[in-house]
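Human: I would love a firmer grasp of how sequence relates to backbone shape in proteins. Take your time, and here it is.
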Amino acid sequence: MGIAVGQTAPDFALQNQDKKEVKLSDFAGKKNVVLVWYPLDWSPTCTNEHACFVNDMRSFDQLDAEVLGVSVDSTWSHKAYADKMGIKYSLLSDFHPKGAMSEKYGMYLADKGITGRASCRAPDAAPSSVSLRQSQRVTPGSPTTTPKPAARQQ
């Protein structure tokens, strides 16, 4: 069970590809955040999706938005993948316990052992809470569409 539009989104602390801890609350009041869940590093669809983010980073920079990718891959896989793809934004490892952060958002697909594909936006605001404003979820295996804003800090 995930969070619904208007509900407070849980904070999290996950390591990125450089083994640096990243918390959603660290951005509160400072920067917009775009959370991007994707099933796996190295898969063709996820690779195409990340290529779009890499190519459109200027647009995210203009919106003062920090992109945070989330999957159940390890930090080592994320590091190799980020290096190969030229990814400069954080890829967060929801590796152990597997999918725990994603489960809180309703994004962990336990039967498949991966996260679903979705994006949400957490606009710059007060550090007290993050609430889901809009969501876009894509079933793994279906065509990927351009991410839309979806979460808001209040």
About this structure: The first strand starts at residue 8 and ends at 9. Helices lie at 44-55, 57-62, 75-85, 100-104.
